[in-house]
Amino acid sequence: MTASRPARMGSMPSSSGGIARLVYTRLLERNIPSAPLLSKAGLSAEQIDDRSARLKVRSQIRFLELGADALQDDLLGFHLARDYELREIGLLYYVMASSEVLNDALHKVARYSGITNEGVSVKFATGKETAITLDYIGVERRSDRHQIEFWLVSIIRLCRQLTNRRLIPSRVRVVHHRRETPAEFRSLLGCEIEFGSAVDEVVFPGAVASMPIGSADSHLNELLMKYCEEAISHRPQARTSLRSSVETAMAPLLPHGKANAVEVARRIGMSHRTLARKLSSEGLTFSQIAEELKGDLAGHYLRDGDLPISQIAWLLGYREVSAFTHAFKRWTGMTPRQARAQNSVVSADIVPGVQPVRRSRSR
Length: 363
Hints:
2 domains, 9 strands, Arc Repressor Mutant, subunit A
């Protein structure tokens, strides 16, 4: 069993649990036992059954990952977003659908998205382009792919359904890595995806924002917005922990060899010295965070059988495969190739100097 890390609670963002419940349903359809996966994610069947229960965002992300492994579906987030009925989003969907134009609907998503998921902040900007950007709050973005892909595909489907147009994004960019845009993504979205970016976003041409919404109803919209305002007024604002901010800034810098303390401090708006002092007050060091982040990402990347070891080394900032192999062996006691050959992946809680638990992938 691995040693636990310092607590980083600051806040515990929650979600309505809609995505987790979609995973749960899919597992049931495939006759795959869900109880062990829920337990590993810190969830219970009672929470899933209770649609009024809020789930921890981290638990939902973890359940998505475990569900993808059990279902042998590396595009689980995409498939769930493609297939579900958008009205299942609930209040937020009807607020959007009753808005006058897409610009209004997207502004409301940006304001009220915390009702659905406090761990994801939606930002909207329009001008020459219409850009919807997603940021994680109080949750480590890391290599999570399923939840973020669910959100991005849902946003594109929503824009299309509300305007009754097959809108094609100008570009879609995501922080996590895939070797190439899967054919299913390309067919649905109508464009390539830029993986390994510094941001998670969907961008449409600027004119899209002014498109009318056929189901607009100003009276209904006014009423629903009152419910939304009441909902967010009773919910504490999620805060981003310093560690999460450091990890978010560090991850896209790793492949380029620029993930140093000076550059990361600059990106989160403080001096190198201030960053070191604040981390120290939380019992952390920059090098510790960097080492643990690399270990976590290594485990995620190794699950992707399409990623060569040499590319994984590069993604983690190692210029030589031998350097990555040495580090991975220090973390886990075996080489990356041995881990992949044994169908094992390292725990998402690698702690330097501590032998982590290995778990076999579901088959």
